[in-house]
Amino acid sequence: MKKxxxxxxxxxxxEIPSKTxxxxxxxxxxxxxxxxxxxxxxxLPKEHFANLYExxxxxxxxxxxxxGRMAGRMTERLSCDGFNLLQNNxxxxxxxxxxxxxxxxPRYYGDGQIIGGKQGKADQEELEAVRRIICEGEEQGRGTL
Length: 145
Ligand code: 5GP
Ligand code: ZN
Prior knowledge:
Layout: H1 7-12, E1 20-23, E2 27-31, E3 41-45, H2 57-78, E4 82-86, E5 102-107, H3 124-135
Antiparallel strand pairs: 1-2, 2-3, 3-5, 4-5
The structure holds guanosine-5'-monophosphate (5GP) and zinc ion.
């Protein structure tokens, strides 16, 4: 289903023009208007899902498979040296458009981009405490999901 007041629904379905790199029945891949690096693209489903939690698994598989294929083509054509795939969920995580999308950010040596924040250093006790919270009631994380 499309959402009337959603800009990415309109872009994905062609009601608002975009620099489209690829399109099929379910997805459109466009260039980001505020690129982090040259070739920064977004994979958009044509149906409205606000975020990863709402995205059905089949769409999820297809979206990431498509991103993988696009990364291959873009690497060839742009001669980039690597790729970051980024997918934000929730305002706190940096999501500003509440229609699921995957950022495809080509990386070039010397591009100076910093993706992701600083990381700390946890000890085994902290890791175990977090593991227990996430896996409580599961046997060594092997339960059903
Ligand atoms: P988010 O912050 O939600 O993960 O990412 C939203 C992205 O959409 C941003 O990188 C922003 O530059 C891009 N963006 C927002 N509005 C438009 C638009 O109208 N057209 C295009 N091509 N990109 C957009
Ligand atoms: Zn939408």
